[in-house]
Amino acid sequence: MSVIILGIESSCDDTSAAVIKDEVILSNVVANQDVHQAYGGVVPELASRAHQQNIIPVVDKAIHDAGITKDQIAAIAFTRGPGLMGSLLVGTSFAKGFALANDLPLIEVNHLHAHVLAHFIKEDEQDANQPKFPFLCLLVSGGNSQIVLVRDHLNMEIIGQTIDDAAGEAFDKCAKVMGLPYPGGPLIDKLAAEGNPDMFSFSKPNIPDYNYSFSGLKTSFLYFLRDELKKDTDFIEKNKKDICASLQKTIIDVLMKKLILAAKDTGIKEVALAGGVSANTGLRDRLTNLADELGWKTYIPKFAYTTDNAAMIAINGYYKYLNREFVNQEVAPFARLVF
Predict the structure, then answer these.
(1) pTM score above 0.70
(2) Do strands 106-110 and 135-140 pair parallel, antiparallel, or not at all (unpaired)?
(3) What is the pLDDT of residues 117-128, one digit of tens each?
(4) Taking the mean position of all CA atoms in its chain, how far away is CA 145?
(5) Which domain holds residue 109?
(6) Backbone angles phi, psi at 318, to 5 degrees
């Protein structure tokens, strides 16, 4: 018998609902919040209020687009954390109420696990382009930079992670220093495509094992611009594309150096990207090139599954449903959830 899972995602500023039937995506609806652009970043209070406005119409559309009824849903999966507490509360409360009203089991999902499992979302039943276990996943987002050893759908281990700032945060903070609007990461990616990545150099950390650090890079970038602007107040505008290309190359170099080391030490040649920063074209291109150079089999998620979305929550919920991993109505969200 087929298993249909309704997924709810509300960890930050995107309200999303999705329906999955036996790993095959039936619908994935995302409502974005443009209100934060004026503030240069996500405002938690505004985010939670927008979730309250969006959650019902988003879920209704997801069910309608999937062509199902509420009676066909086997369980509801929701993001328990990590994320913004106010945002998580909206999604968690709705999921609990929906489950209670329809007598459905509840499935909690770790947002980071879900990013990794986005690779197992199928467009149709013939879709067979999923990683083979074990594989390494470079999980990069605004709040996380991790190398994850994935042994099974529900068996993952972080073998490397940032000790301070994440790669996505480095992109956004450096973009802000340059005067670029929020979110800055995608703009840096766009401008970098037309710049010279070898024009400028920035600090690269020397961190042991497979761990990362990006705080030093941000400081190096800030001082670099400060010194150059003293010489020429129009330096950023005149060199914007080259600055973005050089910054992006530096961040990607740092990420890939540790990923290559981890793959070499573990002997694993199945390598995947995940998280919001996996939408970066420079990072995607570098991984593709390394696949040819090092003999890796690489997996790059579709753009729809890189940023926060409920499809990845639903697929994680599907595997937990098969394993009968349910939670009761007393479950509460956590802003910082242990991996």
Answers:
(1) yes
(2) unpaired
(3) 999 999 999 998
(4) 10
(5) 4-127+305-322
(6) -60, -45
